[in-house]
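seq as requested:
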Amino acid sequence: MRSFINFSPAFILVILSSVASAADWPQYLGLKGDAVSSETINGDWKTQAPKILWKAKVGKGCGSWSIVGGKALVVGNDKGNDIVSCRAAGTGKLIWQHQYPEKLVANLYEGGPNTTPTVDGNRVYTLSKSGVLFCLNLGDGRPIWRRHLQDELGGKPGGWGFTASPVVDGDLVYVLPCSKDGAFYALEKKTGKVAWHTTNIQRSGYATPVLTNIDGKRAALVFYGRTVVAHDLTAKGKILFQHQWKTSYNVNASNPQYHDGKVFFASGYGMGYAVLDVTGASPKILHRDQDIRMIFQNSIRTGNTITGVFGDKRIDAELMRMDIATGKIHWRQKMPGTRASAALVGGTLVFLSETGELIAGKASDSGFEETGRIEVLSGKCWSPFAVSDGRLIARNNNGDAICLDVRP
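struct tokens:
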């Protein structure tokens, strides 16, 4: 006997829409905030470089792009104003802009905002260096609500301002004011009202919270200025574990990684990396190397390995793959500059060096096979790129942006 199920056109449309959304890059480091995408791209550039689809000026800053439903969003600073711009991802045509007064604050770099817009449904969440948090309408850029992390929540930014991008999960948007009342805040995403906040007091760091599951609990890994902390999001941010990590100037800025009872994290200024065992009563360091460093570049976890470009201003960049449990380095090779952002798109690893070179290849535990290298931008490139629907969009600190066609 055969059974048949009839699906309505509306149901089919919902299914197709959910499949299409898998290609979106709606926040810092992509769909899950881990710089990993299931999308397939063409990373073989040895015979022909990707076509340039468009270029634009987006204002100074180190924030990355979000790409959702054919719209590309970024924040930059120009002439004393932060500008949130929304463009057509395929053509670069400006759809709308939202701007507000904000100082450039070019402290040892070009200055400008360091956060990435977070898109959730028809809303966009942005955060400035001074703590201005906007919820904007994705369609036209009009403000829905506004909060100020310093003036309203008593937040205390680090020396380079607020740099942790807003993170949306369920009905809440998470931010890090690091105030005297608490470090981690959950706001109602529709209204901006405080839903709850932690009571732990922390120095402000520069890393965006990483959402993960720890022992069956929804949790946020936060790299504060002097501590790495796991908050239980099902219990109003209760601390699951914490470990002190004091980096000069509180520059804890790279993304921590959780896997199988272990936490990897890294910083610069002589601190290097460490892996914690967090299965016991208190975290214990399993292994550490002070010469394997990350200042603010991101790492990628695949299975039980970490891959990324390690280095800081005094150590040249090296691409490495490391075993999380043992610290074994599977392989390492030189890269341009002292740091680079990274993403794993389908089976292709892509890196944007701080000198503006885009490098693609295939990686395994036995090595990295480069399949393409092109120079796409000049000047410093400190912000991660974004990939969606066959388009790779990158920017430099000065605000020059470029979109490449990387469709297979």
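The mean pLDDT is 94.
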